[in-house]
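User: I'm putting together a teaching handout on how sequence relates to shape, and I'd like one worked example. Could you take ImmA/IrrE family metallo-endopeptidase from Planotetraspora kaengkrachanensis, show the sequence you're using, and then write out its predicted structure as tokens right after it?

Assistant: Happy to. First the sequence, then the structure tokens directly below it.
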Amino acid sequence: MLTRLAERGITDTPLHKEWAEIRQADPDEVEFCLAAARLGLDPYAEAEPYEQLIVRAANELQGNLFGDFLDAVEPATMGDALEWIRAARSTIVQATGATAAIELRQKIRAPQVSPGDRSWEKGWSQARAVRQALGLSGEEVFSLTPYISTIDGTPADRGLQAVAGTAEGAGPLAVIEPDRPISSRRFTLSRALWHYLWESEALFLVTSAYTDRQKVERAFAAELLAPADGIRELLGDAPESAVQDDLEGIADHFQVSPMVIKHQLENQLLVA
């Protein structure tokens, strides 16, 4: 954009001034600008009212937890969201969680991942590795209860669906909204389980964001709960002939939303 303006002899615009400020910024200021941008804010025009909250979030949340927080929350609810996460963390570190998940994490073997694999393909492979480690057939329903414990808690921001984590030596526990339908609850908890099984952070968020990592965990949850092979077996030999009643029946069997079955069909069974 600046090059195009220069070609037209246009200089000294607000854009030029902002770019000059960015180039002269120190590392801390660059980090602040990046954080503000992930919140959807213009760092130089809109972020000032939220500066203290952004700095607080950076101090209280580390690694992927900080990035996932920025990608999901509304700036206006940051303070309440941070308090909710702090309270949830206090609960999690005092809980034992679901201990069967500890053995499962040790038991699963990481699938081979090719450099060209897309995010969702990685998630599918990881889910298959979990089901294989447990000896589950394609049609068997995955029970989450042994592998992730829950405590009810209403998130302070609609972009945050659950906060979960572990105490040292314990299995995972998720703080999740109590009024979610069972299918939505199972999907959200499966996404949380992905974090525990495949990442190393002690605290993690399940959010409404659509980053590459979120795509991995969503694909993992879909394949863990409603594996494509199981859907194929339940449908018979002609998945392309499936109608809405078929999808709803299979969704009831796996205790997921019909939309999960629809996406599994479109993304795995009906591809050319």
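A couple of points you could highlight for students: Residues 63-225 form one domain. Residues 165 and 200 are 10 Å apart (CA to CA).
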